[in-house]
Design goal:
The structure is a homodimer of 241-residue chains.
Chain A lengths: L1 H4 L19 H15 L6 H7 L14 H13 L13 H18 L3 H8 L6 H17 L3 H32 L3 H15 L11 H6 L1 H21 L5
The structure holds a DNA duplex (30 and 30 nucleotides).
DNA sequence: TAACTCATGCGTACAGTGTTCGCATCAACG
DNA sequence: CGTTGATGCGAACACTGTACGCATGAGTTA
């Protein structure tokens, strides 16, 4: 019905004079995050984002140069969700670092679509929020007493661990999300295929798979905490020789 | 000139009867890796891959279900490059694990385009080569003396660290490769912008940036080795209480 | 030798993508 | 009132992954 679209003279059918600033960079980024959270990274297209905001796809290009740039903005925006504690003195640095790491992981699991992007922009990506986070983490290690030249390496080690495990988990969760099942259904459903594939590698079939199928999420939490403790153990050993 | 394309009767102009098995799954995967190494992940399209192999794009679909499946195959193929040492007894487990980790990182840096894929398929991806690798690594930790239930968590910790740091490095290297510069040119060229962006976060400006600009690759190597040692320190501590 | 089967290659087509360009609109300003 | 400059948007381009159906010809059977 093109008649509907024609410039009708009636005040009611005529589209509102679309006030300025209806479309801002902030709103676009926010809506993109909402879309990504809801439908995953494969469903983010400029046109789809456009219709969601009630505009044409090409209008977005007035506020954002690229889809790539949009993604950079989006990634930095979720970094902004992190609330990194300021560096405490004494021996409480470990608690602070643990909290930072835990929050970074939680953020990644909240937005699993970020995993492939981290592999593309990495941490070269220097948005303001990412910079703030890195700086705060460095401060925590400095307060712990690491010498200047080692402070860098120590934070790098921690970040690598957290990003590595969170990325792996996020990829796993994305795959589950795409299937529409819950984590438990997915795990128990795939069990026979997995057992079959690893028949010649019995070592891969760890622990009581029954228990593992029951509380997959709890096991992931435990694994994360275990590794984090080991990494921090290894780093702490450098402080008290 | 469509005349050229028409089914000419001459034996010479007529295309060779294209012997069977000209196109195999193995050849497709191999050529895809070559293309990825040469031009990066953004340049891999089925048509481009097709013309490279002297066939039409759609012909590839006789041997590969999807582009996604092709990528799964490609990822597992590069896992096959790894030569994981068999588990040694005694205290030499640490050397073996170190070598495995180093090789895994080297493989990722050889094929930087793999980083975003690892974030998509993660390690849920159970191709035969990936399984072989995981199994061998588990064996190394078992030989080290980890109890059964902890063996899993220990390997997970190590893998997370290696994947995290290698992924970050790979993303960084991909970005450089796309710019056409060398790593040194890139680093020194971006220095002013970086210094500017981190003016309010002086902690981020680590060490003598002059030396850092001179041997960026060596510094990455050192950082990797440092973190790997810390992670292994933390894990070793669990063995001798 | 002749007929048949069926895996393989490929041309065409479709729906969808990111992005460019030029035109229309309209708030703000002189 | 006239001008300017920012903003929205329709149309178009080059490109993507992939479904479909037809042609070919090697291998097998009669």
């Amino acid at each position: 019905m093109p008649a509907d679209e024609k410039p009708s003279t009636s005040v009611w059918t005529r589209p509102r004079p679309r006030q300025r600033e209806h479309l801002t960079r902030e709103q676009i980024v926010a809506e993109a995050i909402r879309l990504l959270d809801a439908e995953g990274v494969g469903e983010l297209s400029m046109r789809k984002l456009g219709t969601r905001m009630g505009t044409a796809a090409t209008s977005l290009y007035r506020h954002v140069a690229n889809k790539d740039e949009l993604i950079e903005l989006v990634v930095d925006e979720v970094y902004g969700e992190l609330d990194v504690p300021t560096a405490p003195g004494g021996t409480r640095w470990r608690a602070a670092v643990t909290r930072t790491a835990t929050e970074l992981r939680a953020m990644t699991l909240r937005h699993p679509w970020i995993a492939p992007e981290l592999g593309q922009v990495g941490l070269v990506h220097v948005g303001p929020n990412a910079v703030r986070m890195s700086s705060a983490l460095l401060a925590q290690f400095e307060a712990a007493g690491f010498p200047a030249h080692e402070m860098d390496q120590a934070t790098g080690t921690l970040m690598a661990y957290v990003i590595g495990i969170a990325t792996t988990e996020a990829a796993y969760l994305s795959q589950i999300a795409r299937s529409g099942k819950t984590e438990q259904e997915w795990v128990t459903g795939l069990r026979p295929a997995f057992d079959d594939a690893t028949r010649e590698h019995p070592r891969l079939r760890a622990g009581s798979s029954a228990q593992r199928d029951a509380h997959p999420q709890r096991i992931r939490d435990d694994n994360f905490a275990y590794g984090l403790d080991r990494v921090l153990d290894g780093l702490t050993a450098r402080l008290t020789p």
